Amino acid sequence: MWSRDSGEGKMGQERDHATRASGSGGRTGANRMSRFWNAMKRTVTGDASPPPDLEQALDAVRGKTPAPVFWLLGKTQSGKTSLVRFLTGAEDAAIGSGFRPCTKTSRLYQFPTSDAPLLTFLDTRGVDEPGYDPAEDIAQFDRQAHVVVVTAKATDFGQGNVRHALERIRAASPSRPVILAVTCLHETIPRKPHPTPYPFETLAAHPGAPIPETVPQHMRECIEEHRRAFAGLFDACVPLDLTKPEDGFAEPNYGGEQLKGVLLKMLPAAYRQTLLRLKEATDALKGVHQRHAEPIILGYTSLAGTAGAVPIPFADMVILPGIQARMAHHIGQIYGQPLTPERLRELAAAIGVGMLSRQLIRQAVKLIPVVGSAVGATVAAASTYALGRALCFYFEAVCEGHVPTPDALRKFYHEHYDAAEKQWKADHPKAEAKA
């Protein structure tokens, strides 16, 4: 590791320069950095008692952060976990342990973390039990869910309880989209390959459209039966077969991209962008650690952007340290690298000063109505994303047996800050136009 004294000395010189240049603004920035590292230290030492006002502020920000909510309705073993795995890239074990009970018969899974969720799944488990009453779930979920996804196993025709529940859920919010996902298609054609190219494209736009004759007869009859059983209760039908690579099918995610396309079409614009960004970011990454860390970074970036839009100067300087500290802690867990006090000092020396001047500028600009919020959101999101990627860069190097120099880490941070800033502006054109 590099010399702590030399790193901290350089950091101190730059901080003194920033303070002299900006007067009280420098002191405010230094206080902001102090809050960040104090928050990090609480995380490292296991202090589970963060300021109550911070928790209250974070709860308010989470409520305003666009995260798609999918209500999964279907019997046990109907393919719901496979659907979640496909949309998130998470492993079955992580999905299973991530769900937590929220009503007597349902549970909730926030991906990648409940602190900063990008996607939320509501799973109704009791729907295949006799006498299931969806009233409690409707009261709990009706205002939260953006899309209902009904999963029906292709060869399972006992869907009476599911239909009964769907009738009441549909009646509660008739305008909310419902997707009928007919799953496990391979069970209709044992030991035979899937029909290619994917022949069910028209069912997404026209649920009652005829199924092509090229589809094997038994598969076609099974899909037709499910369309008949749920007639009038769904807006799109997507037959699919989400299997694991070791199952030996040529296309493990058969129909998966079609399902994702339907979800994107049905989601409101703000929520649609979240799903798009998640796919693009994770597809571009090859390393296992980075693929797991990227959703964490994106979740906290979205949360930070929302906090940065608060139109009160310096208000988010209380919230952002908590957001970024929790992100750093989660990333450290992914890499199996504990955030020791020594490591925190190294990261502070290398990255901390790089964020200082940007924070001061962002807070000053917030004095300008409308423009300030747009700029604040952009800088908060970009700095959080760049910090997350810089932490990955640092931990990746540590895992390989060396530590990047402060200059290399700072350069990496600024490169990703600039790229994230451009991407955030592209994703939020209305806010950028106002600015």
UniProtKB/TrEMBL annotation:
GO cellular component, one term: membrane
Keywords: Membrane, Transmembrane, Transmembrane helix
Locations listed in the record: Membrane
Domain named G: residues: 72-182
Pfam families per record: DUF697 (PF05128), MMR_HSR1 (PF01926)
UniProt membrane topology term: Multi-pass membrane protein
Main location (coarse class): membrane
A GO molecular-function annotation: GTP binding
Domain of life: Bacteria
Region listing for Disordered, in residue ranges: 1-31
Cell membrane listed as a keyword: no
Ranges of Basic and acidic residues composition bias in the record: 1-19
InterPro entries to which the protein is assigned, alphabetical: DUF697, GTP-bd, P-loop_NTPase
CDD domains: Ras_like_GTPase (cd00882)
Transmembrane among keywords: yes
Protein name per its UniProtKB record: G domain-containing protein
Source organism (scientific name): Gemmata obscuriglobus
